[in-house]
Design brief:
single chain; Rossmann fold; 12 strands
Length: 338
Amino acid sequence: MSGRDGATAAALLRGVAACAEPLYAGLMRLRNGLYNRRILPVHDLGRPTISVGNLTTGGTGKTPVVCWLAGRLMELSYRPAILLRGYRTTLSGISDEQAFLRSRLPGITVLANPNRVDGAKKSLRDDPQTNVFLLDDAMQHRRAARNVDVVLINAIEPFGYGHVFPRGLLREPLAGLRRASAILITHAGEIPAVALETLKQKLAALGSAPIFACDHVLGEFAVGKEVRPLTDLPNVRYAAACGIGNPQSFFAALAKLGGPPVVAKAFDDHHDFSLADIKPLLNDVDALVVTEKDWAKISRLPDIDSWSNKIWRAKLGLKFWGDDEAKLLGEIQRRLGK
């Protein structure tokens, strides 16, 4: 997709994908047009609604943003409920995002249902005091009405190699950014300042939404029931593994703290971990570092307790640029009518 592979086979695949791209892009334009004209129905969920989504497939860091926003809404006296698609739900009926958010946000309703309208109805039956819905990964879920559309853009690869799926990673044409209420550039510190300014200018030309920037940062490590500071990492021989959309950012952040890992293993996004994945990575190291979202699945593996003291869960948080956090929250509150 990136075009970096110049082999004949890769070029042929890009050619085939390019032939399919206009069809997919055209269907997305038609679909969006039907929703814009309300020919396809848009359903009010019964409470003010915030969508957090993205224009490309994976890698923007939605889950930490949803976690941050839910926490801030609670501090502002809202009672949010989070509605997920539930991508790659396991046999236990829980997706990795659902398990992670429930562990980080006790007391907040977190429901997984590909149909957010049905999910909202169930949420209100379970907790009628809910006064705001937070939709995870819902930019393209047009059936659900929303008051706020927060669109995340990954600074490292913002426009999906410039092509709509299957030729590139764009879920829909760039015109979709006109629907955004706010744009949040993630991983902003991982590109040069000049490139970030150029990206902001391009985004401003594509729509009228205010633009904010943040970085995903490591906060601390959870090991068993203990917490270890980031400064402990350089003192151990460690491996790293993750099944997230942007693994290289995670590995690079760890390398800055403790030097390169002995082994860095990137699994597919939402990978359903097995003991066969984990055990080889624990050989000849003092620690295996994983993300909290991956730990949500790893922790359910049989006999994992015997290994848990060697598995360090990296807690990810957000660091906004300047006063962008306050400004983004202000924009969201304004659109919610408060």
